[in-house]
Amino acid sequence: MGQYLQMGICYRLEVDKKRLDKLEVTLEGLIDELNKHLDITLYEINETHEEVIFEIKETVALEQLQEFMQYQYSMYPQEQWDTDCFESASVVIAELSSLKELVELAEEGRFPCFQSNIITDEVKVSAWDSLRVEFSMLVFFIEGKIYMEGYGAFLKYIENNIRESSMKWKIAGAFKCFID
């Protein structure tokens, strides 16, 4: 089965409270585990009756996303992509004034280089237990059909590399890479 390598900014994470309670994981424990994957200080934390929701701070997204994406695009082999798409998406993103507008633009699918996706992944919370987390992403790189299994370490390498090389932008702490 072919899957796509998707890289982008996680703007929302959702965790089922029933499962959290069943595993006896506290909110603080959840935050500690999620901090191993993302910089949770970049997120506002809200709770409903059914779930814990982490949503990226609007100021972080609006102040840094466009410049961060331009930097990432500049490091990508230009012959692999239509650079007009990057430039057009960057111009439109710079004109937006809310996280809601950013998400709507990504969901609209107008730009192949700026899409929205929801990925469900497991986060280990103990030696034996994992917790399902739903990651909503602003995807700015989609690499075509990938046939691979067990590339978690490689994807973590990409995430760490982008975060380390992008220390200028705090938003890099919200960068994730999935195959879906």
Walk me through this protein's architecture.
With 180 residues, the chain is an alpha+beta fold. It has one domain (3-179). 38% of the residues lie in helices and 32% in strands. Strands 1, 2, 3, 4, 5 and 6 form a six-stranded antiparallel sheet that branches. Strand 4 and strand 5 (130-146) form a beta hairpin. The longest helix is centred in the middle third of the chain and has 18 residues, at 58-75. It starts with a strand and ends with a strand. The model has no long low-confidence stretch (mean pLDDT 86). Residues 13-40 form a coiled coil.
Overall average pLDDT: 86
- The total domain count is 1
- Straight-line N-to-C gap: 10 Å
Query: Which percent bin holds the helix content?
Result: 25-40%
Number of helices: 6
**Overall body shape:** globular
Report strand %.
Answer: 25-35%
Poorly predicted ranges: none
Number of strands: 6
Query: By helix and strand content, what is the structural category?
Result: alpha+beta
Element-level helix/strand string: EHHEEHHHEEHE
Coiled coil: 13-40
Keywords: Coiled coil
